[in-house]
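Most newcomers find our protein records easier to grasp once they have seen one. To make this concrete, we reproduce a full record directly below:

===
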Amino acid sequence: MSASTRKRRWLTIWAITASAALVAIPAGAASGGAGSPFGARTLAQLAAEREQSVGAITPKVKADDGGGNEADEIAEGADQYAEARTSPGVVAPGAYGAAWSSLTNLPSSGGSWRNVTDLPYNSDDARYRDYDSNSSGGSGNVTGRMAAMAAGDDGYVYAGSAGGGVWRSRTGGGHWQPISDRLSSQSTGALALDGAGRLWLGTGEANTNADAYLGSGVYVLSDPHHGTFSARSRVGGDELESTTIHQLRFGGGKVWAATSEGVWSHSTKTLGGAWKLEFAPNPDYLPGGSKATDDSAAYKNITNDIAIDPKDPSKVVLAVGWRSGDDYNGFYTKVNGTWTRITSGFGALPTDAANVGTVTFARSADGSRYYAIDESPAQMAANPDSGLEGIYSAGSPFGPWTKVADYKQLAADGSALTSSGYMPGVQSWYNQFLTVDPADPQHVYAGLEEVYESKDGGSTWSTVGPYWNFGFSCWSIDPTKQTGDCNQTTHSDQHGVAIGSYHGKSFVYVGNDGGAYKRPVGGSQDASGHATDWTSLNDGTIDTLQYYSVGVGKDLTYGGVSVTGGLQDNGQSVLRSNDTVMGSNFGGDGGDTLTDPANGCNIAEEYVYLAIQVTQNCAVNDGSWVTDSSKVTSYNVAPADNATSEARFIAPITADAKDSSTWIAGGRHIWVQTHGYAIRSGSEWTSVYDLGAGRTATAVAASGGKVYAAWCGPCNNQGFARGISVGNANGTGWHDITLPATGADGIVPNRYLSGFAIDPKNADHVYLAVNGFSRHWTEGPGAGVGHVFESTDGGTTWKDISKNLPDVPTNSAIVTANGGLAVGTDLGVVYRAPGRTTWQRVGKLPAVAVLQLKLSPDGKTLYAATHGRGIYSIKVRDCG
């Protein structure tokens, strides 16, 4: 999602934690196959959560909840991100496109945003080798998730990010420029260069992870060396709007698209006219169909890839299926003009629905060899080690296929993932790529959590890009060595791959949760098979970092301010005022964050489920804690809802606006602690209110001891309910506000409540941000209308002040010192000036989600945490 599970190392054991992403498809929808739609691993099989006391070196593993395939961290993250935008019902296609049009038509402020994080982000920064850091793991410079890659033979490389658009390099990687900022979707599903050198973009990330956004269709650039994508470059009509696109393939004068709503095709010569729906296994569940509003509709027409025989383009094989299993999963081909499931003659590659899940194809340039990766829903549900059915090879897309690798073989070939419960392919539903060296049909690269290479058609494999270096004999925490004594590897969790050349030399380019990397084709390996020649391409000119949060405090050492924030699978970044390179002081996923405005090195960082750790020195550490546990400088202070899993994946935490030593955290309970950054134990939290069984906090805010808490429960579209509770930090006066489930316009809708903003002059004057779409787009009970509401009586009554605000999911709000109101939405920032009733757009950010807004210590600068384009700032005076 994902976010992924915290990666960290221990002194005496190597606990490989699940770097899992999340599910973007509405979490309330049911899978059609056996078991949970969310996958295999239970909490008992996840490695250590943040329950360790200071100096502990042996992780504790949570007890099995007895559910077998019950929701693990993948599911929880999926639930949160999707529920916020879809509950209480199903969102109709076109919602984001309409919202973007509405936003761009708003009057715009004259100010301009400044990218704060447009410099290298070194995940191995030697300054931050504290207990909870991944520094020295070997990923080097990182940025946000890359979902797709494309490369030519002329040094041009194209990287498609999960939420920050498409980027171009003219120098074989690096010195990047964004080329899709004018599009209404910055989410990439697929990139491909056709035989004429045109660049095709399929929008809508299709990794079924929670923080993936739907797309607006397919676009093409006839001159990718110089052009940029625009609405005019869209292929066909709106048939593929609000879908995700997993692959684009070419053959017979057509481009084929494997989407979340079936397989479609279009002429590559005539770009106008509608797309043709080639095959949808369950057309009744498509938009406009009789079952389009069914809870499981989003799962019923997922397709993964297309294999086309270049010798006869009329011969096509479709890989179709939902990763967690459904009756329609399988391979299909045309027989007498009808798409028919393949049931025999395929050889070792399974054809039964239980063992066909997410699939990726690749073929050699001469068409002599085909390869396939298959994830098995049945294995994912039953085997905690891996969901990978295997890697296969054949001389034709119709087989017979031969298995050339399974997860045990890959684990034995230099993998870093050899621990029970987390082995190669454990996330094969999320991590997949496959490509063949154009010069050698036997030379193939496969991507799962790691990067694998075979030079003999799959007979033998090397883990050229291990998950990390922890656990290898070459590893050292020595801060004078960036990756210890090991070579640099790539970031984990692979998604995109391409082979191209620069100055006559061929390179393989990979995209993963940490950005883009390259190494020479035929590059060097050490005795373990690990590559010695990876280069990070995340040079700071490309900023696709996916922030959940931002914190700003005075930099008492260097002057100015220190800026920090929590990220999807890239930990917590910290940027001191004199830095030319950002560092990472916490690893894994970074969630919400608190930063002391008076001292930017006082930081509380959330991992997931309210697992909070605190530091009072920016977590600066030389790694000496490895031999002396007293030298740890970050401390676990999680409240009890973390241990009982009664908090959201990214749960809310805040400090009282009038007292930075009073913190409020929300899970099932509302927790308060009054020791500020001097807290050292989770036992220092006090539960001041129990929201009730099945309820969990979605937002908290406090000022002068008055606390507001929003909650949901159930949080999905099956019985969705939301509410607001109000009380005092000392535990007195707590009560639930009456919010009718349905009613006239002006009533707070029955949708996800995502944020509060309290007037600093009056704690009874508060604003509420409401996520999701209004009832025009959301088909669910009580969806209502409006996104921003105001109360002047402490939350007892609310008034809709949305006015001309676009109908777009709204995530965060903040009151500026002059009384203005800034709001972060899924498509940018809007602002209502003091004394005004209407909204205007702040600057011109790309169509990127702004998940949190914070002010600088002096209140003069607004900071925006975007989920795909880093952190931006703008002077409040320039907001409008």
